[in-house]
Structures are given as C-alpha cells and as structure tokens.
Write a structure and sequence with these properties.
about 130 residues; ATP Synthase, domain 1; 1 helix
Length: about 130
C-alpha cells in the first residue's frame, strides 16, 4: 500500500511526523479525506477530529482548527492545539488552566504597569514643580 508523509504540528509540538496511508479531517465543506499523491490543495481545518492511519494502526486527535496543505506527497497540518482522543478532556482542562493562569499574569502585569506609571507621573510632576521655582 502506498503512503504519504504527514507533518502534524501545533505551535507547541510536533504531534506526528511520519508515513500515513490516509487522513480525514473537518473542513467548512464537511469531512475531507487525503490519500497519497492527492492533488495540491490548501484548506482550513475546523475544530474537530483528525483521523489518520499508518501501516501499524489508526490514530485519532481532537483539534481546535488550523490549516492543512497537500503538496507533492507531503501533507502538512498545522493546528492551534491537538489532543489525543483518549486524553482530550484532560488535556483541554490543562490547557484551559494554563490560559487562565496566563490571563491572570497579564492582568497583574497591567495593574503593576498602571501603578508604576502613576508613581512615575507623580515623580515627574514633583520634579517639575521643584525646578520651576
């Protein structure tokens, strides 16, 4: 059976890089399948399942959307996040916690910036008043 190379990426990791015999993912037009030597195509990947088969087994991932490009016999899939179907709920929960923590740090940083800016403006105002006399 012929195969194609799949490069499945997220900004954080390489999910899979190897030979596959087929892949199915969700697009705006519905489920789209990829087989070796498919014509060149670039599509938006919607949040949902990415299913692919190798010579040794099948794999299922949940993604939150991205883009896929078939060029030659190489299929590149780039998604914001991808979770193994069996661990998806746990991974989504971890990711949500990470995002909440990051948001909290950003809010704290913004509050510190505003406090420091106010202190700096007061110091400049005080300096300006003392040098004018």
């Amino acid at each position: 059976m012929s195969a194609m190379r799949l490069v499945f990426l997220t900004p954080r990791e390489v999910v899979f890089d190897g030979e596959v015999t087929s892949l199915v993912l969700s697009t705006a037009d519905g489920k789209m399948g990829f087989l070796p030597l498919r014509e060149r195509v670039t599509v938006e990947v919607l949040a949902g399942d990415v299913l692919f088969k190798t010579e040794t087994g099948s794999f299922a991932y949940e993604t939150d959307g991205g883009v896929a490009e078939m060029k030659g016999n190489v299929l590149t899939v780039l998604c914001g996040a991808a979770y193994d179907k069996d661990e998806a709920a746990e991974k989504r929960s971890e990711r949500a916690s990470e995002l909440a923590e990051e948001r909290k740090k950003q809010e704290q940083s913004l509050a510190e910036y505003k406090i420091n800016r106010a202190a700096l403006l007061r110091a400049f105002d005080k300096l300006r008043r003392t040098t004018v006399k």
